[in-house]
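User: Predict the structure for this protein chain, please.
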Amino acid sequence: MAIACSVDWNLLLEYLKVFITWPMVAAIFGAIALRSFRDEIKALINRISSLKLLGQEVAAPQQARLAEEAAEVAAQVSPAPNPAPDLEGLQLSNEQVTEVRRLFESERAAARIWEYRYLNYFFTADTQAVLSWIIGTGGVSVDTYEAFWMPRISLAGERTAILTALQMHQCISIEGPMISATPKGKEYAEWPERRTLSANPGA
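Assistant: Here is the predicted structure, written as structure tokens:
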């Protein structure tokens, strides 16, 4: 009986030695970690896959931001100014009509300021530079834009994303082959608090 117990104990020890070796323990912990953090690992792999060789940019900042925030931006951007509401049918004095219209204009101005503060964070330094350049030219063709900015912004997708961002925020208009600044784009460019506060200040 003692011999049988001794043999069983030795077998158990041998099995434990097999399972406690570092490759087996590492495999068990690795499987647990993969199961617990699979979403984080997937996100990390996606980020790594966007890396470029030879020290080039990790990703085009304006293009990436557009892809991530397009839906959010559509909800956040203030709508185009609407005409003042018709107050003539209401029983209001001239002073009251003037005061109500003044309040509406004040609210619109406040909304525009908040939007411009948002653009300070959303637009990269290159996007801001492109806006200033378009305003300075008084209007330019898409081909001229591509030729002028290709040496500084080498990625075609990034150049397209910059125009898309400016157009989406109604800072420029593109009609056929021509690009021109809108009154809103000029107003933002002249806004005293205009800054480049983007997390990726340069492309």
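The longest helix spans residues 94-122.
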